[in-house]
Structures are given as C-alpha cells and as structure tokens.
Amino acid sequence: MTNEQAILRAVDVNKSFGGLSAVSALNVEIGPGEIVGLIGPNGAGKTTTFNLITGVYKPTSGKVYFRGTDITGKKPHAITRMGVARTFQNIRLFKDMSVLDNVLVAQHMRMGVNLFEATLRLPSYTEKERRSHEEARALLAQVGLESHESDPATSLPYGKQRRLEIARALATKPSLLFLDEPAAGMNPQESMELMDFILRIRERFGLTIVLIEHHMQVVMGVCERMYVLDYGMTIAHGTPEEVQKDPKVIEAYLGVE
Ligand SMILES: Nc1ncnc2c1ncn2[C@@H]1O[C@H](COP(=O)(O)OP(=O)(O)OP(=O)(O)O)[C@@H](O)[C@H]1O
Ligand SMILES: [Mg+2]
User: Fold this and answer.
1) Closest Cα to atom 26, ligand 1: which residue?
2) How many whole angstroms from 44 Cα to the centroid of ligand 1?
3) In a structure prediction context, what are the per-residue pLDDT tens digits for the chain, which is 257 residues long?
4) Nearest atom in ligand 1 to 51's CA
5) Which ligand has the minimum distance to the alpha carbon of residue 214?
C-alpha cells in the first residue's frame, strides 16, 4: 500500500497526559475497505487512539493523515465533515429525543441547514427538511430500527441503542468509521448479529471500519487485520491468526512472564 492509497495513516503518534504516556510511537496504516481491529487490555490506549485520530485530542507529537491530507490537530467537526465518523464507548445518544430525531441531529451537521432558512421556513429549508427525513428513515431501515422511529432513544434495549449510535455516525456520510466497543453490553445473540451487521454496512455504505472490541469472537470474526496495544505501545499487528498466537499478546492478556 502506498501512502496515497491508504485511507488513514498515523505516523509516530504520541500522546501523554502529564507524566503518563497513553499512546507511544503509534504507526497505523489502514487501506480502503478494510475492517481492522484494535485490541488490548484496559487502559492500553485504544480509546485515546480514536480520540487522537478524530480530533478530540491533539497528539503530543506525530502526524495523522486521512486520504493523504494532514489532519493532525484539526477540530472534530472538521474531521467529521471530511468523512470520518465514530461511536463512543459510553453511548452518547440524546436521551430525551426520539430515535428519528437523534439521526436528524447528526444529519444537520452535514446538510448545512442555517438558522436564517429555518426561522423563515424558506422553501429551500422545507425541501432540505423533507429530504433529510427521508434519508433518516432510510438509514433507520438499514439498521433495522424503522419501527422505532418515534420511541425515545433510551427506551430501546442496549443492542438497539448501539445500532442507533451507528446510524447516527452513518448519517454524517462517512467513508471511515470508528466503533469503540460496539458489542459492549450486548448479549451473545446480539453480538453475533452485530458481526453480520458490520459486514453488511461495510458493503452497503462502502466503508472502511476500525473497531475496538473486547469481545474476541466479534473481533476475530470480522477483522481482517488487527493491532494490539499494551501500555500505549503497539505490541503486535497482523491477521487475527498471527496475533492470537503471538507470545507478547498472550502475555499482555494473561499477565504471564
Ligand atoms: N483525558 C485524560 N486525562 C488523563 N489520562 C487519560 C485521559 N484519557 C485517557 N487517559 C489515560 O490514558 C490511558 C489509556 O486510556 P484509554 O481510555 O485510551 O484506554 P483504553 O485502551 O480505551 O481502555 P478501556 O479498554 O478500559 O476502554 C489510561 O491510563 C487512561 O487513564
Ligand atoms: Mg476505551
């Protein structure tokens, strides 16, 4: 893979919080259409890695490139607009809003509805609104939530809230999607469905996906490649088969000498 072909490249990225080195010498390269796993014990630096790439944190040093463009230190909304979306480890839905409204809010960010148009209810606004409702409903159908559009977001069972979070991310029309522990809190049945779902949305939306997941069956089942972090360092990367039998990985997970 050449630098131009990579969807995402992190080059020697470091992040420290005070004296703590949360991510060290991170070098990651993701190709178009890949599903890549990011695993490691608690506190390994996985979420921090997502935060560094999506603009929540600025790296202490190093560079992040999205489709060859340097996005290091850009603001999260600017990175979202370029086509990078994410979900959060702790679900961040608007709790009092309906399922449909949660998707509409995410869409608005991309549609560029302005307050002037909205207040005066200009034809340009109503047309945009009609179109965004249509798109939001289509998206809900894609994630199997079409029968829930009027329900309050928090009335959904956990697995469906995770799907709604993904629908919200998809509403920003990303080409690169980051999922932070999408199977967390799901029962085994929901986790199995999630694997199918991830494969399906990759095809349907032409996505490249990076996922953090503790649920090994899910990671091993959907990821073509993975990176393993421990104490902020990348201790292994390769196919699930390669990574699984790597002594450094076994040691990190089991704590054996
Ligand atoms: N904003 C912050 N300020 C200070 N320390 C932080 C901050 N964010 C993360 N850390 C620290 O950085 C390290 C990596 O945290 P991170 O959340 O990236 O881990 P993780 O691999 O996602 O873990 P988990 O599996 O528990 O979600 C931890 O030691 C954490 O306490
Ligand atoms: Mg985390």
Assistant:
1) 42
2) 7
3) 666 689 999 999 999 999 999 999 999 999 999 999 999 999 999 999 999 999 999 999 999 999 999 999 999 999 999 999 999 998 889 988 999 999 998 887 766 556 666 666 777 777 878 888 999 999 999 999 999 999 999 999 988 999 999 999 999 999 999 999 999 988 888 899 999 999 999 999 999 999 999 888 889 999 999 999 999 999 999 999 999 999 999 998 877 54
4) 18
5) 1
DSSP string, the chain: --TTT-SEEEEEEEEEETTEEEEEEEEEEE-TT-EEEEE-STTSSHHHHHHHHTTSS--SEEEEEETTEE-TT--HHHHHHHTEEE--SS----TTSBHHHHHHHHHHHHHT--HHHHHHT-HHHHHHHHHHHHHHHHHHHHTT-GGGTTSBGGGS-HHHHHHHHHHHHHTT--SEEEEESTTTT--HHHHHHHHHHHHHHHHHHT-EEEEE-S-HHHHHHH-SEEEEEETTEEEEEE-HHHHHT-HHHHHHHH---
Atom of ligand 1 nearest to the CA of 89: 27
Q: Which CATH architecture has domain 8-93+158-254?
A: 3-Layer(aba) Sandwich (3.40)
The domain spans of the chain are 8-93+158-254
